[in-house]
Amino acid sequence: MNLSGTLAPEIGLLSQLRSLNFMWNNLTGNIPKEIGNITTLNLIALNGNQLSGSLPDEIGYLKNLNRLQIDQNQISGPIPKSFANLTSIKHLHMNNNSLSGQIPSELSRLPELLHLLVDANNLSGPLPPKLAETRSLKIIQADNNNFSGSSIPATYNNIP
């Protein structure tokens, strides 16, 4: 649609919104924390924009969210540990950004997680061995980061 501009904090007033889809536009600025007020959301698709800033912790409290696509933006900072509360999430697509810090081991508690895409960021530290305990995980893509250590944790052999 070639939309431009920012996501206003007032977006949080759309209390019955189920799908927030602004893929492949020219949105800039931060993802407003007020998105966390929309408890009915099951899809956030903001990939392919020019969004920046850090990920709001408040997204981690959207119990109905099953897909978060923020790939191909300029988002920086850590992956919030609050994302471990996304008990309905199946797809976490956060690749091609500037995320930093470690992948939170708490993400291993996500019972429905199928895809964890964090490639092409600035993540560091070791890969969390506990991630292999995520029973539903089918794809983890974490290349092109700055992880420490010279090997993939042995527990990753248990990922189907």
From TrEMBL:
InterPro entries: LRR_dom_sf (IPR032675), LRR_R13L4/SHOC2-like (IPR055414). Pfam families: LRR_14. The keyword Lyase does not apply. Keywords: Disulfide bond, Phosphoprotein, Repeat, Signal, Ubl conjugation. Residues 10-122 form the Disease resistance R13L4/SHOC-2-like LRR domain. GO terms for biological process: maintenance of meristem identity; regulation of root meristem growth. It is found in: Membrane. GO terms for cellular component: membrane. It is a single-pass type I membrane protein. Coiled coil: none annotated. This is Disease resistance R13L4/SHOC-2-like LRR domain-containing protein. It comes from Aegilops tauschii subsp. strangulata (Goatgrass).
